[in-house]
Specification:
The complex is a heterodimer. Chain A contains nine helices and four strands. Chain A is an alpha+beta fold. In chain A, strands 2-1-3-4 form a four-stranded mixed beta sheet, with helices on one face. Chain A is globular. The termini of chain A are far apart. Chain B is of the alpha+beta class. In chain B, strands 2-1-3-4 form a four-stranded mixed beta sheet, covered by helices on one side. Classes of the chains: A alpha+beta, B alpha+beta. Chains A and B meet through strand 4, helix 3 and helix 4 of A and strand 4, helix 3 and helix 4 of B.
Chain lengths: 222, 231
């Protein structure tokens, strides 16, 4: 029986793009379903009743939600080209930094986006500290995962496109090559990889998207 | 104990996150040294081993630190492969265990803590949230345990059981402090019977702090929170 793999995602979501990247790196054929988040499909609500969010991977009718959980599922189910390291300590480290990116870095990035004045300055200070901690993990390595890209690079992919686009849309000194030369060197390597590029979000469309959301938020907070 | 294979756990008696790891090590029969941390006065070792979050628990194995309770527990499961195996073999079941463990620890824990720290409307809102989340959990448990069976022994404890135990161990303590029930066997019978079963294990009983100490601790947290909220 052929495997049936479906991915419910959204074009601007780094969480669903990272799942696509993993699927492509493993050469797993899948059907992609674009969700309109303002009008979620009944299928999505059925497959993820708890959070009602994308991404959701559905493998032979069985749904898995939460991008980091999905990444581990993919690695354990299709065992070619493993993305997580073999050694338990290295795995723990990769999981730690992935969680750090999702729970700390991305939360602070949102603060930077939506705050203004002094609050924004503080948020930028905070994100600088956090990015520096993450940058440390690249020292002496080709990629976060070592000699070739893996789980943590897939998760950190959010820096490659989203953070750069956010930087451009906001115009504040949040994420620049001057501040983070090692991260940008890594970005330079990543964008040369075909599979990574296949999962890139369309830049102009994304810039528009970010700007629209920021405007809407400013408008609603008045 | 020689440096080879030396295991240390930095923790604090009141932390449910530490409890998960403490139980995991004990159930696996891993010899370890426990270091009680004063959270008001963290040791230089703790700050060195967890510079990013400066929190407990921290597991140190062969001098290498691992942090975050669920990550530590998976590390323990992958390093010491004897039973109990905290995660199942099947990838889909593993995904479910990870999903629900995260859910309980992040969402449920947060909301329960809000109940403890608030009163009036804020508390009502948190109580409603917890109730809804517990129902979701109950529905999921029906799939995990279609026969409704709930026998647990020290050989078959799973990750989700450890998470339940860390949160609902002192459950009757919360009732005494708050004057309300968080777990209701009428509404979530499967969850309640699972929690009761885990808390009956002798290893778990040994690791549960004395009731008076827990009651005093929760009362202290609640009073402080209410005081600072009223300004």
């Amino acid at each position: 029986m052929a495997d049936e793999v479906k991915l419910f995602g959204m074009w601007a979501s780094p969480y669903s793009r990272r799942v696509e990247l993993a699927l492509k790196l493993k050469g797993i054929p899948y059907e992609y379903i674009e969700e309109d988040l303002s009008n979620k499909s009944s299928l999505l609500l059925k497959y993820n009743p708890v959070h009602q969010k994308i991404p959701v991977l559905v493998h032979n009718g069985k749904p898995i939600a939460e991008s980091l959980v999905i990444l581990e599922y993919i690695d354990e189910t299709w065992r070619n080209n493993p993305v997580l390291p073999q050694d338990p300590y290295d795995r723990a480290m990769a999981r730690f930094w992935a969680k750090f990116i999702d729970e700390k870095l991305l939360t602070t990035a949102r603060k930077v986006s939506f705050a203004t004045g002094k609050e924004q300055d503080q948020a930028i200070e905070q994100i600088t500290e956090q990015l520096k901690l993450l940058e440390n993990e690249l020292k002496g390595k080709e990629y976060f995962s070592g000699q070739s890209i893996g789980y943590l690079d897939i998760v950190a992919n959010v820096l490659v496109f989203w953070f750069r686009n956010l930087q451009e849309a906001l115009g504040v000194d949040m994420f620049t090559e001057e501040k983070f030369p090692i991260i940008f060197e890594w970005i330079g390597k990543l964008v040369k990889i075909d599979t990574v590029n296949e999962c890139r979000i369309p830049k102009e469309k994304h810039l528009d998207y970010i700007r629209t959301r920021l405007e809407a938020l400013k408008f609603s907070s008045k | 104990m020689g440096e080879e294979n030396k295991v240390m756990l930095h923790g604090n008696w009141s932390s449910p996150f530490v409890k998960i790891v403490h139980l995991a090590l004990t159930l696996k029969g891993v010899p370890f040294e426990y270091v009680e941390e004063d959270l008001e006065n963290k040791s230089p070792q703790l700050l060195k081993f967890n510079p990013v979050h400066k929190k407990v628990p921290v597991l140190v194995h062969n001098g290498k630190p691992i942090v975050e309770s669920l990550i530590i527990t998976e590390y323990i499961d992958e390093t010491w492969k004897n039973s109990p195996q905290f995660l199942p073999e099947d990838p889909y079941k593993r995904a479910k265990v990870r999903f629900w463990s995260n859910f309980v620890q992040q969402q449920l824990f947060g909301s329960i803590f809000t109940i403890i720290k608030t009163e009036g409307e804020a508390q009502e809102k948190a109580i409603k949230e917890v109730s809804e989340k517990l129902q979701l959990l109950e529905e999921e448990l029906k799939e995990f345990f279609p026969d409704g069976s709930c026998s647990i022994d020290s050989e078959n404890v799973g990750l989700l059981d450890l998470v339940f135990c860390s949160l609902f161990g002192p459950q009757k303590v919360e009732e005494e402090v708050l004057g309300l029930k968080i777990l209701d066997p009428g509404k979530t019978p499967l969850l309640c019977s699972r929690v009761t079963a885990i808390n009956q294990l002798s290893l778990v009983k040994e690791l549960t702090p004395p009731r008076d100490k827990l009651v005093a601790f929760l009362k202290f947290i609640r009073e402080n929170a209410l005081k600072s909220a009223s300004g």
